[in-house]
Each structure stands twice: as structure tokens, then as C-alpha cells.
Amino acid sequence: MRVMGVDPGLTRCGLSVIDSGTGRKVIALDVDVVRTPSDEPLALRLLTISNTVEHWMDTHRPDVVAIERVFAQQNVSTVMGTAQAGGVIALAAAKRGIDVHFHTPSEVKAAVTGNGNADKAQVTAMVTRILALQTKPTPADAADALALAICHCWRAPMIARMAQAEALAAEQRRRYKAKLKAAR
Fold it and tell me: Which residues make up the binding site for Mg(2+) 2 (predicted)?
């Protein structure tokens, strides 16, 4: 499975692509950070992110895009920018028929480090180790994008099993309701 990991942001948007192998083996294919100037109009900043993300999707052909889920912070404008960037990325994936999954920062940290409260240095160190990189990915947005992709690769089998269980439960519920209706 090829996963594009995205750490959305207006000033710095981390992008990564990894391939998952058997078990927990993952291989980094590409990583970068899209930067937009803070004095540029919002629409142009989102356009820059969109154009870059679309180029990545067309070039790398990911099977799924893993995006960091926005969480409440003190700075509302930062949250809004992050959400807008994430929306542009999800839209680009949807236009291409690529599945999108959102993961919270604590899910990503727990998957990569074993600690949902790990700091950025711990995440970067573990990403470097897991992917057997020669140097630490910088800035932190690049490491976070790689961590998102790793997290999704490792959580994907569980996500698929949950979806199957939910579909089975829905089908059983439908059959039971039909059986009750027929008995009346």
C-alpha cells in the first residue's frame, strides 16, 4: 500500500509518501514541505498547497492519504488555517478517488513512539529509526508527515477489520428488521 502522509498547515505543509511492506516494514519514497508566505492572500496560499499536493498525487499515485486531524488549540487562526489546508488536500484526493483518513496527533504519536504524549523530538527520532534514514527529517513538519503515513500503514489492517465488522453488523440489523416485519 502506498500512503501519502500530510501534516497540513498554511505556512508549512508537510508531505510524505511511503510504501508499506509485510508486517511493519515501511519504506520512505519522498518527503518535502510546502511553504507559503504569511503575507500572501489566503486564497493564493491555498492554491499553492493545492497545486503542490495535486502534483504529488499525480506523480506518486498514493492508494490512501492520511491527514492529521485538526484539534482545538489556543490560536483560532492557526486552527482555521490548518483546517483549510486539510480541506484542500482532502478535496484533491476525493477528486482522484483516493481514500482519505484522518488521524489525531495522539494516535500518530502512540503508533510511532508508543506514547500518545511524545514530543516532536521523540517522534522525529522514531521516524528516523523506523525508516532507517541517514539523517533526521527537517523541519518537524516533514517528520510529522512521515509519522502520519507510518501510523496509517500500521493502523490500516485494524481500520479495515472495523469497517468489515460494521458492515456485517449493519447487514445483520437489516435482516433482523426484515424478519420482524415479515413476522407481523
Answer: 68
19 is in an annotated binding site: no
Residue 76 has pLDDT above 90, yes or no: no
pLDDT number for residue 158: 83
Amino acid 72: pLDDT: 64
Q: Is 32 annotated as a binding residue?
A: no
Top pLDDT among 170 and 22 is at 170
Question: Is 144 part of any known ligand binding site?
Answer: no
As a whole number of angstroms, the distance between CA 145 and CA 66 comes to 9
- Given the candidates 3.30.1370.110, 1.10.645.10, 3.40.50.300, 3.30.420.10, the CATH classification of the domain at 2-157 is 3.30.420.10
Q: How confident is the model at residue 34 (pLDDT cuts 50, 70, 90)?
A: very high
Cis peptide before 139 (omega within 30 of 0): yes
